Amino acid sequence: MKRILIVIMAVFSSGLVFAQSGIKLQELECEMLENPLGIDVVQPRLGWKIKTEKSRVMQEAYHIMVASSLEKLNNNNADLWDTGKVTSDQSINIKYKGKELDSKDKAFWKVKVWTNKGETEWSETAYWTMGILTYAEWKSTRWIGYNQLFPGESVSQFSRLSARYVRKNIDLEKPVKEAKIYLLGMGLYELYINGNQIGDQVLAPVPTDYTKNVKYNVFDVTEELSEGKNVIGTILGNGRYFAMRQEYKPYKIKSFGFPKMALQLVVKYEDGTSETIKTDESWKFTANGPIRANNEYDGETYDARMEISGWNRVGFDDSDWMNLMWVQEPGGFYEGQMTPNMKVKDTVMPVTIATKDDGYILDMGQNMVGWLQIKVNGKRGDTIKMKFAESLKEDGSLYTANLRDARVTDRYILNGSGTEVWEPKFVYHGFRFVKITGLQYEPKVEDFIGKVVYDDMETVGSFESSNETMNQIFENAFWGIRGNYKGMPIDCPQRNERQPWLGDRTTGAYGESFLFDNQTLYSKWLDDIKYSQTLDGGIPDVAPAFWRYYGDGVTWQGAYITVADMLYRQYGDVSGIRKHYPYMKKWVKYMEDNYLKDNLMTKDKYGDWCVPPESLEIIRAQDPELLTDGEVLASAFYYYLLNLMEKFAGLIDAEQQDIAYYQDLSARVKKAFNEKYLDKSKLVYANNTVTANVLPLAFGMVPKEYEQQVFENMTHEIEVNKDGHISTGVVGTQFLMRTLTDFGRPDLAFKLASNRTYPSWGYMVENGATTIWELWNGNTADPEMNSQNHVMLLGDLMIWYFEDMAGIKSDPKHPGFKKILMQPHFDTGLNYVNAAYDSSYGEIKSHWRKKGKNLNWEVMLPPNTSAKIYLPVSKASEVKVNGQPVDDLAEEISVEDGQLVFELLSGDYTIKTN
């Protein structure tokens, strides 16, 4: 008999934690946090995945038990929450409604479900632990630091500050039952207990505007502590806290001060007593450790001669170390970190090493983000210098002009002890090439390993097709997206910028969600945006607002709304909308009050950024015929956002007057927009750029009687005037591929996706790109402007790959992939597509292959879901499903616009048409 398994997960305020269980499962899978500790949400949302080989499985009811101890749960004593049997097919986002949980409480839970194919056993047990829920519980924990410079340190355009090595001897007088550390380490930290590093996170914690909120991490250190003498050690790096370039442009760059920390070690003893050890003035530190400088833009300097043997172990003599001082707290509210820290997620082995001038050029073969681990030999005091770059000059030397004033150089000073292995702790680089100097011998490629660093999230999507250009673009997107996840979505990882620009992710976040499980990252980012909002409602261009840019645009700031919509659409998560709705509404009103004139939005800052220019040698287009008026962009986008806000108001049962407000305002904007910008004689918008036409088409602003002709005129502009190439910038490209496809030209979208001539994504591939460029002409325009690892020009391409080519799309009426719309466009020019996406319900697969008029399509649907299938035939007799007539397995068969449409419940299917 086939068994039905359950994989359970806890969904907290800002995203998923697969707390994991299952009848036969042996190990944790899809873990979203390092551990389910430190949850500061009193009503977490719970969910589970049903795993079974059975087909057509739909949940009919569930029963959740939550208990305060494992023993109680095993005895079915659900003293915290017992739902009883609940008739429902809901298996994600179920809000905990049990007894109110206090700080540091632990909750154990399990679930069983009833399906149309039978009842499951109880799942294995999962748990979560509450964090510190009130400021009062932190109040007596002192922040410690040292707000002075040491010799060799500086605050300047190129600030230098050594890492702070911190230690505390503690004496535990009884056997330890349980111990947890709650740590606030600003800007970055590494944590040790008795010489052992705690956790495998890097560059932790995630960055925030520390004057608004600071994140704490929680670690279970029970196994590391024992009765008697112990040592807690930390290394504090600079990160975004001790801000780079802080004295260079103080009006622009936000600074927070010197590194500092606050820590609580909560120990529960076997005899039932407990003790809390906190940071205070008795903690000791030194700045005379081996990390002499660490700066995200400029690199890390490590002097192995200054290593401090045993500094984080019992018995070390710290009598000549200084006492840390009580210092002012950062100012922001303390929050449990609900998104995972960064980790080393992959490694890259170099492909070549070549002699160049006074050193060697290492080629990683891939533009990557992270750092280089080295294995070297030399005399004591030899300095190995590593300078990083994305590309080379024609003479084979590093090209670094596009890095601006970022020095991107790591230095390692040998101690002369033999073979020495080193990698940095508190920096990262965006690079493909490394120049290595200072070696007294010829190195081998095996002496170096590239460490790929990004947020610890699962890869959830894969895509392959019969077109190699599209496949390589997908690979480039994959490397670019993950490289720019740094506790927040940044624009680029290599130059002196690395900022979380809102405009880069307005639609980008949606496409990225098909490749990576980015729910918690973008939930956290919504908080960053909220914290950056001004009192009167303004939203910055970058959030957290490390740069003071408040441009009051629409196309950039609109990411606040579109990202919340993505979380709802892709994950069924309405909590972000509910939480942020008042602040979004405040921004909508702010823009109306300040910039809406004659019902049109007059304020735009960046235009359709990075339109392909008229000349390959210039960075930005100057020809007015290529540029879209800012009022067109802002007004159309504002209309789009008003419609989303109307949807949000309905989802959260906002007051009816809110819905009326959005409806009235959007109607007025639409009317004014068409009156001013629709040329009824030519049936084009404004100056007939593709962007000027695609936005009103995508947003439903075009009067129905003119819609088809406007679309045809737009496609004429693409096919004839632009010779079948892209001509949109950041804004227009966000809606281009889907609009072409929705209006019946998926073939033209395919041409744009598969081009290898300028301007196109394939042109980047043709010219050796392994990530996505910032400029369409990044190899010919002033290369000092071009980041070779940006994602903003992807637009809606990744969405189009999965939704329109693979046919994996969440039904907007049933978000989170509860119901799936599978409507691949088989007539674009592709012969096959093989794609998969691991949704909140489980993995969805779509693998189709076309030969002549025959189609073979393999589909996999996870339990408790269904899919609406679209086929390019009009008769059911032309279709077989698993070798049977379609009528035997399908539901609700109909014909829509010449396509056969039917519903399939969960399972594996092979669909064939003749």
TrEMBL record:
Primary enzyme class: hydrolase
Entry's Gene Ontology molecular function annotations: hydrolase activity
EC number per UniProt: 3.2.1.40
Record domain Alpha-L-rhamnosidase concanavalin-like: where: 355-454
Pfam family, one: Ig_Rha78A_N
Residues in Bacterial alpha-L-rhamnosidase N-terminal domain copies: 174-345
PANTHER family in alphabetical order: ALPHA-RHAMNOSIDASE (EUROFUNG) (PTHR33307), ALPHA-RHAMNOSIDASE (EUROFUNG)-RELATED (PTHR33307:SF6)
Official protein name in the record: alpha-L-rhamnosidase
Protein source organism: Gramella jeungdoensis
Top-level taxonomy: Bacteria, Pseudomonadati, Bacteroidota, Flavobacteriia, Flavobacteriales
